[in-house]
User: What shape does this take?
Amino acid sequence: MSATTDAAVRRPGTAAPAAAGRGLLRRRRARLLLLLLLVLVAAAAALSVAVGSRGIGPGAVWQALTDPGARTEETVIIRELRVPRTAVGLMAGLSLGVAGALAQGHTRNPLGDPGLLGVTAGASLGVVLAIHLLGVGTPAGYVWFAFAGALVGTVLVFTLGSAGRGGASPVTLALAGAALSALFYALVRAVLVSDTDSLDAFRFWVVGSLAGRGPDVAWQVAPFVAAGLVLALLNAPALDLLGLGDDVARGLGQRVWPARLVGLGAVTLLCGAATAACGPIAFVGLVVPHVVRAFTGPAHRWLVPGSGLLGAALLLLADVVGRVVARPGELQVGIVLALLGAPFFIALIRRRRLAAT
Amino acid sequence: MTAAAQRVRQPGETVVRVGPVSGRVRWRAVGVAAGAAVAAVLLAAVSMGRGDFPIGLADVLRTLAGLGDETQELVVWQLRAPRVVVGALVGVALGVAGALFQTFARNPLASPDVLGISQGASAGAVAAIVLGGPAGSGLVAGAGVPLAALVGALTTGLLLLLLAWRRGLDGYRLVLVGIALWAVASALVDWMLTRAAVQDAASAYVWITGSLNARTWSEAVPLLVALAVLLPAALACGRALGAVQFGDDTARGLGVRLVPIQASVVLVAVGLTAAAVAAAGPIAYVALVVPQVAVRLAGGPRPPLVASGLLGAVLVVGADLLTRTVLPQALPVGVLTAAVGAPYLLWLLVRGRRRSTL
Amino acid sequence: MTLDAVTSTRPRDGTVRLAAESVSLAYDDRVVVRDLDLQLADGSFTAIVGPNGCGKSTLLRALGRLLRPVSGQVLLDGRAIARTPTREVARVLGLLPQTPVAPEGLTVGDLVARGRHPHQSWLRQWSRDDEAAVAEALVWTDMADLADRPVDELSGGQRQRAWISMALAQGTDLLLLDEPTTYLDLSHQIDVLELVARLHAERGRTVVVVLHDLNLAARYAQRLVAMDGGALVASGSPHEVLTEQLLAEVFDLEARVVPDPVVGSPMVVPVRRIR
Assistant: This one.
């Protein structure tokens, strides 16, 4: 694709105006950004493996990663704690960033956040019921229940949001999401105020953390993340057309409802998997696409992968920060992200000229 | 009356002119408000009669009029009335605050729950409970928690106003900044809950759910005073809100002085929320659901203030009555308000009579 | 490099390209257009006129397969449009809704490039034809210098040009435009309609346009279709359609019709509204 473009533009005497050259510059900038983000993600992952409450030298880290024969306490920590934790963080960050870009594109609303669509509330209810009724008590045990809850939540929101006469509009979807979340949280609270043991377990899940996520969690969510990412990438070109409005998109030959279903399916898979793996994490899905859009413009071909990479880097770095600032304990990644993300988000809101919906 | 004047009027509307005072009365909105008021009073009376020492409805009313016997006086006036009064006033305050926010931001999701003010109050209260020493001791047992909640709510509200202010207030920016504040406050609450002893966490959790348990006149009276000041202010803002709703340029064109109106609407709504939350905790979703229900019942272009307040009272008092009578165990009222209010809003959505923005 | 993508090579032989066959249209339960027949010939330039709420935009949406008729059907080149894959339709028929909105920050160049979507696939994302068609469309609509500017920062007239440029890059024989001159001042209205007329004359496009302004419709279109109350009331050349009697019946307007001093098309001079 790129080679053709370059050749066509550079060929002298064609009708391609200077403007196309500037457009090319933007594409180059977007490609450069993706490359930089890739480097950033790699660096963040390296930090996440190397830094922790227990100081382990780079030599031991390297040995743990390269020499399967080595069996010291340090290599075990690296292999069985830090690497899986990093993998989970990587997948969750990728998922949340991509899901945010998709949700904002499909709702044509810069506020579009998967959490508003019932994912978080559904997952919370699933986890609470698992704790209260079945006595589940480990992150790996929560995964299926959180994921099932997230699926039920989104499906219900979309069914109810599009059941009215007008069909699904962003407003009815948002209202249905809010109402259903209210109902789910009411059930969550009904359980938690009457069962202190459940509260004791739930409070460590709801805060959003990567602590204690082992290889089992990573393998549980990996297939869903992979499927969600594939769907998201397939969906990206359609999003560019939907951005011009449903009528124009259909005029250009885009089938609107199939595209929307694929997109929302991807959002549910990704956001559900991320929430199942590490609990509700705010702000990544909301903020990251805004930042990436400032560099790439609104083309989803760049925006979707860019948001995923930045989301992954952000989540991993926030996790590392949380491990460093509160030694020997740690500050959960959900807290770090909220505290860092909110001021940034407010600055973003104040800087931009916001078009009202 | 001329034919032309006739044509200006909406159906179901009557013009009232008494001396220099004139206005238009929309009977449907008046009917909804009156119905809600009657329902609130009835529910309150029933609620004051129920409990370990049951009193009939007639006796409750007689006692309230000062004609009951000594035991009834004590039970109704000292034990049950404060709880019901706090519930009703909290409902009024949250309903009106929600209507103000939603109209101002032109967004049905704009409510103190979403804008972070309730979460700010929770952060204050949880800090007081968790950091204030062992449960039930010293500062925490007294005025500490409500005061901390009040401070939390007002701080968040002022931050909201300051951070969203940029040559005036844009409703959209207000919602976005509010969501950011909500996330910070939620993170703080969640984090403090993980740091607390489990008993403290449990009592903090009951508080942030919103409860009317053990409320006395010492909560009811300050709330009453606050509402006496804030409700007239809210109604005064309400008139200008109709113009603000069209968007800033149109409002200016209609001669509304925008900046003072915007600031006072938000301040009044923050004040109402803070007062309510300090008294009973952030009773969930009253401010979000009630104005939406009110506007669908009463019709019209935006949530009616008076009807929203009265329906808020119905919801809170009714939910409290349910928790104490029907349910096998006494849940905090905040669980019920969400569980009752949310399905009703869903039903209204599915029925789909309106699909507009407010 | 050829410019086939932009230039229509079909012969103009007057065959019917797009037709409505006893079409009834409704939103929910409200019937807007009832039992309407209309045929649009290859290479024609048709303007649909009528009072507010007469169903002209609704008809245009149905012709562009955005609205499915409750009864009757729309035929594109003799084939039911509802049963033709939407992407195939999009290679033949382009449409521009009233006041479309571009996402914030989208540049003119990107907007026009999106018009190539019906010609692209996963393997063939940006062919030489695409490149050429976009460049040509930009030059042709005089937007090349603005290609790097965000659409939302343009003036109303420039914005409309950008959208027409997108429709041009789509490279379709047929072009449906819904009130392309809304919110534009008179000189920009002329500018946009001149552009559409050139598309028709020089590029051989079959154009259907919904227009408010009767005088502009009469000046630029070869054929006027007048609608009232969801039905077709008159169809023919501007001289045949724009009569004082029709203006009275359809628009409740007492008016004189005089020849346009510039091009001789009929021109409406209103006298008063008939109550």
Q: What stands out?
A: The longest strand of chain B covers residues 13-18.
